[in-house]
Amino acid sequence: MAVQLLNVTKTLQKLSLNVKNKLATPIVNVDAESTKTVLFGNASRNTNFFNKLPAEALWEGITSVSNAGKKRGRGKAVSKKNIKDLNRGQLIGVGKANIVWPGLSAPIIRGKELVQQQELPPDPDREQKLIQLRNSMGTTRFGKLSPIERGWTGTKMPGRSIGPPDAVGEDSFEGFDTKVLELKTVFNMKGNFGRKRRLSVYVVTGNGKGLAGFATGKGVESKTALRKAKNRAGQKLMHINIFRNHTVYHDFYTQFGKTKIFVSQRPPGHGLKCHRAIKTICEVIGIKDLYAKVEGSTNLQHVVKAFFLGLIQQKTHDKIAEEKKLHLVEICKENGFYPNVLASPTEVRKPEEIKNDESMDFKQFTLHGRVVLNKKKYPPFYTKLKSWESYLKKQERLRNHAKVKKHLIFEFGEIKSFLSEKYPECRPYKKPPKEVEETAED
């Protein structure tokens, strides 16, 4: 028996050599038990591209674009909404002729009976159903967002609201709102899995009354990343001081990395004139009037971190007054340049105690000695015209009226002249103060 098996191995080696040399020799099938040889004929390959791969792989090759093709801008019209699956609604073994095929469209044995091939009455609505199915494909449209719900750029996530963070036990985030600042795809190279793709979300949350926080969340799906980010932001809340519930306490300079921000205080009604990320943060915090100039890198995460650093480091008026040991007085155009004492220290320095080289400029003090570089303003074009000279001559008699009014208000608290006491009826009209009516308690 051992000798016969040895002969079999030798014959197989000879056959493999013949195939390599492309000799037309018959293939021998050797049975080890009976040692019989059977001839099958010449070697042939009955496979091709279309029966090597399954239908799903072939369909994907037609309706999709490779990553290299996407980078080169190919297949821009190929997407899920434009693809029509022509196999949808069709079953194997079921066609125009409604026939029962045992083992294909019906089981071979049903119970104890053998299923026989038979023809069923035709379905007249079959073609119409297939056409209706195909027409329904490729027409999917995303729901339109209202202008209030839109973000910075149309339907993209940055700038959109995703609601308050999830409640933790009995504690809920009432009055909070979370807004997306950044949503991007990130990749991490793993040794076992290769490039691992995830979504990174950067959000800010706040209640519009000075409480706010920001955080990053990552996940395979956008919903997971958004939920993680807003819940983490709710755990990292910071309290920010707001001056008169509309703006910052003072101008300040802040920096993170290569990003520099100059923030300026503005009067009511001015609005938010700043970077869109800073504007979104101010809306969440509750700041309504602000001007901010970003210099250097505009990396969004650096802009957010720099702005929050500046908000946290700003000083209240009482703290500034105690630090300088001087009165803090507000003189602004909106108030008619009328001095208004904002804060006073416990101990005030005398004029002799103030050094000659000490800067008394409030803006330079808050900006830590920095000076904002402004563009040079050129005179407007109409100042070169002859009509401008005649206009100046006509306005010469009114040249100092504004300064005189400001000086009178500063000295006497009202606009008056040396004849006001003699002719009191010529004084400008002044609204009487509102009298508070005391209601008698019953």
From TrEMBL:
Residues 144-168 are annotated as: Disordered. Residues 176-240 form the S5 DRBM domain. InterPro entries: Ribosomal_Su5_D2-typ_SF, Ribosomal_uS5, Ribosomal_uS5_C, Ribosomal_uS5_N, Ribosomal_uS5m_N, Ribsml_uS5_D2-typ_fold_subgr. Keywords: Mitochondrion, Ribonucleoprotein, Ribosomal protein. It comes from the Eukaryota. Its main location: mitochondrion. It is found in: Mitochondrion. GO terms for cellular component: ribosome. Belongs to the universal ribosomal protein uS5 family. This is Small ribosomal subunit protein uS5m. It comes from Nicrophorus vespilloides (Boreal carrion beetle).
